[in-house]
Design brief:
This protein is mostly beta strands. Helix content is 4%, strand content 44%. The chain is built from seven helices and 67 strands. A hairpin with a 4-residue loop joins strand 43 and strand 44.
Length: 930
């Protein structure tokens, strides 16, 4: 459907047209609301200004560039929201107000369903547009005189627009209020923008993100390769209200009829004309309560911190290119980092940023060019202007992947920092650390033997690789693309690969995966996103399936693990945006025999390495049908493959000296349970041997988890020698059988039992177990540790550790038992109402035994008519809480002199409600003040 036909369709269904005359730069036109502000980067508009069109809602907004990216002129005076320039369509950015309890939606600013309390106006001194709009009364509902008021603020923060809504409940009862914000992005007037997540790539089809999966930002490009114009949505950090859900979808589907919800069709199809919608789920807003929503949209040229009193932004190359003609193998060499400080104070304040200074902090792999200094000053920065400094930075080529550097700026006693990332391809030079590291070589080699490739003596290095079929480590005698292995060195040394060439990336790479743990690596010199890897089930004649489909069909586990040489621990990631970095080795757990397919570079939005000559390798770069045949194993019976793993064995008497232990984002014992991300609690158990081997595992509970297997349970990759490891073995989970270092159960207050085992290859060693997170977990449970082999039981709260000797056994069987704490009776005590003459309010204090949901009301007499609902369904912690009353009733009027009763009601999900009340005399001289 063309946009013109959409216009006709919407006209037929009765969407009003508001005809107005042309608008000036600021203010209103003949009662039609329209305002605009601009700086040297952006222009923002709120309202409508064109003569014809459809869906002309005065509360709509739009953005465009004035100069845009300061490092290019090609984006000057361009739109980044459809309809920004005078067109027949008006502005295609708006917010939808969803009142769930009355099942009604309002377009904020719509004159048909509301009215302006304060019409949009522009303040050029602060580059701020402000307006206040209210809904029509909720006729025909239990709150028939109620309405919702929305304050709108759109301000310019250097190259980003800050969109802020403060939503206030002006009704007489609590309402459940949600918000959906919509953007129809354009580039050079073309609606066919390319949505991209940095580090993941282009989103060709409709895509949904929710809660923890929501990226920090999404960019919209005019073209994938070498884009000229890029706009950005910021979804996290700053003072942003992170949405609960974000959808990138077909423009007409997400915009049509101003509907609150939208479901991505199944199967997902590619779309050209995309738009972006963000949802903040409905939450209860009490009488005179407010909800604030803040989001940023603007230029993607820089990375910045946009909160007062100044913007600190940094701009530089985001992706270096692999080029053997450069001395380091990378271009540009060097590259420029520019730091900006933009004064956000208004023109009329006269507040200057005197003596601003900038600093840059570089990680390993980046260094300042000759003659550069870490610290640099700039001239005084006047209001609504900016100062800038530059550094010349080089990538050494010895570290690949996403390298994060920090730019800091300070002035007038205030300072802030921004983290920037540059993606550096692998080169043929790198550094190896002393002791153990898990690596993969991302180059084809003329001679793939380790000694020849690394130009070292065979005695100087030791390499071992996990054999998934034999479940044992074997020595490595050939370095192949796509394979990872353990490398042990006697000392740190620099590596310059001999006879190496980068794969051209013109065809796919294929890596066979066996059932169990597999050591794999990135075969390309560029980082690639884990979620864009594809898979083919053994023996299948179907097309390869996506990463998501591989998870759904139980081909693989979502987690990748790698070894951090600094902490000497495994790290893990399970998001599809996680990067497979060149030179780094990874563990991947396969549940069925399958082939992991690394697509050609063009599918990662990367240009192929066309100047390199590829050599042959065991990881083939041939068409897919070339590997279907004898190389594949027979179909696997999942029932027979779901047996428990035997103890790990190690071939060739390898002398492995380091101790890889496990680390990821463990369940935080102190983390609160939040909507959409119910964490619950976690109890971390740490084991340490007398020879300093360390390992840990976490037992936990979450209201989003089950007692059986789910994606919150994480398995343990194979350890090395001289290790100690704690795990929760499961032989009762079928295809999901294995050893888990995070075992999260349902949070239902029932008795929980975890069977555990502590494994170590250090015989006759003292092993000490500790539990540092007990304090938070023990609020719900009392824990016991049972040594099944030693026939002992310990209360975790009575002692801080437990020790045993491994003697001649590699495995110790234990059991963790969690008994629910005896329920604490729900009581409300020490209710007291006192006068605060300083604030002219009444202070209401009370004490709760456990945490509870509380309602507080003021009544004319005990058990009588409610005068004011002070608190509605508020979460209150155990202990003393205080609320205040301004002596007004639910209509906002001051109450009359007399005796009133304050009633506090509390309830929990497990206990019946209790209530108590206390009298309070309102004195005329206290309550009735001018």
């Amino acid at each position: 459907m063309t946009r013109l036909s959409i216009v006709k369709t919407l006209l037929l269904v009765g969407i009003a047209i508001i005809a107005i005359a042309g608008a000036p730069a600021y203010g209103q036109v003949e009662g039609v609301n329209y305002a605009q502000v601009a700086n040297q980067y952006l222009v923002a508009r709120l309202g409508i200004q064109d003569v014809t069109g459809y869906a002309q809602v005065p509360g709509k907004f739009s953005f465009g560039y004035v100069e845009g990216d300061p490092e290019t002129d090609s984006d000057d005076n361009t739109s980044i929201i459809y309809g920004h320039e005078p067109t027949p369509h008006g502005n295609f950015g708006f917010a939808l107000l969803h009142i769930q309890d009355i099942n009604f939606d309002f377009v904020i600013g719509d004159s048909a369903s509301g009215s302006w309390v304060l019409a949009p106006y522009a303040d050029p001194k602060t580059r701020l547009i402000r307006a206040i709009w209210k809904t029509n009364p909720f006729g025909g509902t239990v709150d028939s005189s109620g309405y919702i008021e929305v304050e709108i603020k759109i301000s310019l923060r250097r190259d980003m627009g800050r969109i802020n809504y403060v939503i206030t409940n002006k009704g007489s009862m609590t309402h459940s209020i949600g918000v959906r914000m919509y953007f129809d992005e354009v580039a050079f007037g073309d609606c066919l923008t390319k949505p991209v997540i940095f580090g993941y790539g282009y989103l060709p089809g409709e895509t949904e993100f929710s809660y923890n999966d929501i990226p920090d930002y999404i960019d919209h490009l005019d073209t994938i390769i070498d884009p000229t114009l890029v706009s950005r949505h910021l979804f996290r950090g700053q003072d942003i209200t992170t949405p609960d859900r974000v959808v990138v979808a077909d423009y007409y589907s997400t915009f049509s009829s101003y509907v609150w919800d939208y479901t991505i069709p199944n199967p997902v199809t590619d779309v050209d004309d995309t738009s972006t919608a963000a949802w903040w789920n409905p939450v209860g807003v009490g009488v005179r309560g407010s909800r604030e929503i803040t989001l940023y949209f603007g230029s993607a040229a820089a990375t910045g911190s946009y909160t007062m009193p100044f913007v600190l932004a940094a701009q530089a190359e985001r992706n270096l290119q692999y080029d053997t003609s450069s001395a380091t193998g990378l271009l540009p060499d060097p590259f420029t980092v520019t730091a900006y400080m933009y004064n956000l104070h208004g023109f009329d304040t006269g507040i200057l940023l005197n003596n601003p200074n900038f600093f840059i902090t570089l990680p390993e792999g980046l260094e300042l060019a000759s003659g550069e200094t870490i610290s640099k000053p700039s001239a005084t920065v006047y209001p609504q202007e900016e100062g800038a400094v530059t550094w010349s930075v080089r990538a050494t080529g010895e570290v690949a992947g996403d390298l994060e550097y920090i730019v800091t700026g300070g002035a007038g006693g205030n300072s802030k920092s921004v983290k920037c990332t540059v993606t550096v391809p692998a080169t043929t030079t790198t550094k190896f650390k002393q002791d153990w590291q898990m690596i993969s070589v991302p180059f084809n080699l003329i001679d793939p033997t380790p000694a020849a490739a690394f130009q070292l003596l065979s005695s100087e290095i030791r390499l071992y690789r996990w054999n998934a079929d034999a479940r044992a480590y074997e020595t490595v005698d050939s370095l192949q693309l796509g394979e990872a292995f353990w490398l042990n060195c006697d000392s740190d040394f620099d590596v310059a690969l001999a006879g190496a060439s980068a794969d051209q990336g013109l065809t796919a790479q294929f890596i066979p995966l066996r059932i169990g743990w597999n050591q794999i690596g990135n075969p390309y010199v560029h980082s690639i996103p884990w979620g864009k890897v594809k898979f083919l089930k053994e023996g299948s004649l179907e097309d390869p399936i996506s990463w998501e489909a591989a998870l759904q069909t139980f081909l693989i586990r979502p987690n990748i693990f790698w070894y951090d040489t600094i902490t000497e621990q495994y790290m893990s990631a399970s998001k599809k945006t996680a990067q497979l970095t060149p030179w780094r080795g990874y563990w991947v757990r396969a549940l069925q025999r399958c082939t992991m397919i690394i697509p050609p570079m063009e599918e990662f939005d990367l240009e192929p390495i066309v100047s390199s000559s590829a050599t042959t390798s065991r990881v083939s770069s041939v068409p897919l049908e070339g590997i279907l045949g004898e190389d594949f194993y027979p179909e696997v019976d999942l029932r027979s493959s779901a047996k428990s793993h035997p103890n790990h064995t190690y071939a060739h008497g390898a002398k492995l000296t380091a101790v890889p232990t496990l680390s990821s984002e463990p369940i935080s014992a102190a983390a609160p349970e939040t909507a959409g991300n119910p964490i619950g609690w976690g109890l971390r158990l740490v084991a340490k041997t007398s020879r300093n081997a360390v390992g840990w595992a976490t037992a936990g509970a979450s209201s989003s988890a089950s007692d059986g297997y789910d994606n919150q349970d994480m398995e343990t990759p194979p350890p090395l020698k001289n290790y100690v490891a704690i795990s929760f073995p499961h032989n009762d989970w079928g295809i999901n059988n294995g050893k888990y270092y995070e075992d999260v159960r349902g949070r239902d207050r029932s008795r929980k039992i975890w069977d555990m085992q502590v494994e170590t290859d250090q015989l006759n060693s003292n092993v000490t177990l500790t539990w540092p997170d007990l304090a938070a977990a023990s609020k719900e449970y009392a824990f016991k540790l049972v040594d099944l082999d030693g026939n002992k039981t310990k209360s975790l709260s009575a002692t801080g550790s437990y020790r045993y000797n491994s003697r001649n056994s590699t495995v110790r069987r234990l059991r963790l038992i969690a008994e629910p704490m005896k329920a604490v009776p729900l009581t409300i005590s020490r209710l007291k109402v006192s006068t605060s003459r300083a604030s002219r309010t009444a202070n209401i204090s009370y004490n709760l035994s456990p945490d509870a949901i509380v309602d507080i009301s003021v009544k004319k007499r005990s058990g009588g008519r409610t005068v004011r609902k002070l608190v509605i369904a508020k979460s209150a912690a155990a202990g003393t809480s205080v609320e205040s009353w301004d002596y007004r009733d639910d209509t906002g009027k001051l109450v009359s002199f007399g005796l009133y009763f304050v009633e506090v009601r509390a309830a929990t999900s497990e206990r019946s409600a209790v209530k108590t009340s206390a009298p309070f005399l309102v004195m005329r001289q206290v309550g009735h003040h001018k």
